[in-house]
Amino acid sequence: VWEKCLSIIRDIVEWQPYKTWFEPIKPVKLENNVLTIQVPSQFFYEYLEEHYVELLAKILRRELGKDARLEYRIVVEKGSAQRHPATVDMPTHYDKPQTQNEVDFPLFQQNTPVKNPFVIPGLKRIQIDSQLNPHYTFETFIEGDCNRVARRAGKAVAEKPGATSFNPLVIYGGVGLGKTHLAQAVGNAVKKLHPHKTVLYVSTEKFINQFIDHSKHNAINDFIHFYQLIDVLILDDIQFFANAEKSQDAFFAIFNHLHQSGKQLVLTSDKPPKDLEKVQERLLSRFRWGLSADLQVPDFETRMEILENKMRNDGLEMPKEVVKYIAYNIQTNVRELEGALISLLAQSSLNRKEIDLDLAKKVLKSFIKTSSKEITIEAIQRMVCEHLGVPYEKLLEKTRKREIVQARQITMYLAKSFTKNSLKTIGEHFGGRDHTTVIHSCQTVKDLMETDTAFREMLMELQQKVQLSAL
Ligand code: ADP
Ligand code: MG
C-alpha cells in the first residue's frame, strides 16, 4: 500500500522534497486500516504534519477507505544528538489519568507510536499528557475576598483561552495560598470546555531542566518547537527563572510565538512580577501585557469554608468547635490549614481517640506560632555574640571598637523589639548605660537597615533566630 501511495505522491510532490521527506519514511505495519510509518525524528514528524498532512490523508483514504488512519513512529538513531528526553514525570501524589487518546509526551519518546487520526483536518493533532492533577479544579477552589479577582480571571481565561485580555494571566502570592491549584484549575477547565486544545502544565524548575538537557544535546530548537505547539501553557513558579539566562531566552521565544498565535499563557509567581529579581526586563514587560492577580491569606470565614469543603470531599467528620478552633488559629496559609486537619485526623486514629477540642489543642501546638517562651535580654545577647563572633563580656565593657559597638547596638535594638523591657532596664544590661544610649543605638540600626543591604540581611537572619528560639 505504501508503495502505491508513494507513487502517487511522487507524481504530485516535486523531486527534491519527495527525496527529503518521503523517501526516508519506512512503512511499519498496516492493521485495521491504520498505517504505521516510521520517521527519523520529531522534527520530521512535525514537518510532515505541517506540510503534507492533507495530501497524505487524501491518498490514504483513497487507498484504504474512509476510516483510514495514520500513525507515526519516531525512531531516533542511537547516539545521535536528537535525543528527546523531555518526558515529564508524573507527580507521584495522584494517579495518572488514563484517557484513551492521550499519549505521554509522544514526540519525545523513542519508538513510541504517535496517534494521528485524521479526524479534524487543519487542527494541530498533537496529543500530550497535560500533567494536570485532576483534583485541582475550580469546584474545589473556594472563593473568598482573598482570591476573588484571581479566581474569576482564571474562569474567564478557561472559557476563552487566548481570547481575553488576561494574557498572560499571572497569579502570584505567598507559599501555600493556592497558586498551583488555581493555575491547574484553569488547565482542567480548558480540557473540559475545549477538549481539542492542548494544555500543558509544567513547573519552571522542570522547564529549566528540560532546557538544559536539550541544550546538552544541541536540540534547543526542538525544545522551543515543542512548546510552541501548546494551546494553553501553564508555567508554575516563574521566580525560579532568576539567573537562568538561557532558559529565559528560550521562554521569551516561546512566549512571543504563543502570544502572537493567540495561545494562552498562565504563570504563577511567589511575588508580583515587578519584584521578580534577575528576570529579564523584556520578559517582565510582557508579563504586564495581561493581568496580574494576587492571592491573599483567606479570612476566617473562608478558612472555615475551605476546611468544611475538604472534609466533605474526603468524607471526614469532626465537631464544629474543633473546625472553628483550627480555622481560628491557623492563619498562615491554606497548606498549613490542611496540614493541621490531617495531623489531627492522624493523631486521632493512631491513638484511637475521639477528636475533641482537647486533642486539637495538643496536636495543633506545633502549628500555632505563639511565643510561648519569654525571650530574655541575656538570651538575645548570647545569640548576637555567637552570630557575630564577639565575646559576651565585651558587650558589657566600655570598649569603643567598631565591631563591638555595632554588636551592642544590634543587641539593644533586638532587645527593644523582642522583649517588654524598658529602655532603662535594657541599658542596665549593658554595663549600666542610660536610656539615651539605647535610643541612639536603635536609631543607628534602623538607619543602617535602610542604607546597607548586607547589614539588613544579617539583621533579618538574627531576627529569625530570635523568633525561632521562642517557639
Ligand atoms: P501554592 O502553589 O500557592 O504554594 P497550592 O496551590 O499548592 O499553593 O495550595 C496548597 C494547598 O491548599 C493545596 O492543597 C490546595 O488545594 C489548597 N488550597 C489553596 N487555596 C485553596 C482554596 N481557595 N480552596 C480550597 N483549597 C485551597
Ligand atoms: Mg505551588
Automatic annotation (TrEMBL):
Domain I is involved in oligomerization and binding regulators, domain II is flexibile and of varying length in different bacteria, domain III forms the AAA+ region, while domain IV binds dsDNA. It comes from the Bacteria. Keywords: ATP-binding, Cytoplasm, DNA replication, DNA-binding, Lipid-binding, Nucleotide-binding. One of its GO terms (molecular function) is ATP binding. Residues 1-81 are annotated as: Domain I, interacts with DnaA modulators. Oligomerizes as a right-handed, spiral filament on DNA at oriC. It holds the Pfam family Bac_DnaA_C. This is Chromosomal replication initiator protein DnaA. One of its GO terms (cellular component) is cytoplasm. Its main location: cytoplasm. Residues 349-471 are annotated as: Domain IV, binds dsDNA. InterPro entries: AAA+_ATPase (IPR003593), Chromosome_initiator_DnaA (IPR001957), Chromosome_initiator_DnaA-like (IPR020591), Chromosome_initiator_DnaA_CS (IPR018312), DnaA_C (IPR013159), DnaA_dom (IPR013317), DnaA_N_dom (IPR024633), DnaA_N_sf (IPR038454). GO terms for biological process: DNA replication initiation; regulation of DNA replication. Plays an essential role in the initiation and regulation of chromosomal replication. ATP-DnaA binds to the origin of replication (oriC) to initiate formation of the DNA replication initiation complex once per cell cycle. Binds the DnaA box (a 9 base pair repeat at the origin) and separates the double-stranded (ds)DNA. Forms a right-handed helical filament on oriC DNA; dsDNA binds to the exterior of the filament while single-stranded (ss)DNA is stabiized in the filament's interior. It is found in: Cytoplasm. Residues 376-445 form the Chromosomal replication initiator DnaA C-terminal domain. Belongs to the DnaA family. Residues 165-295 form the AAA+ ATPase domain.
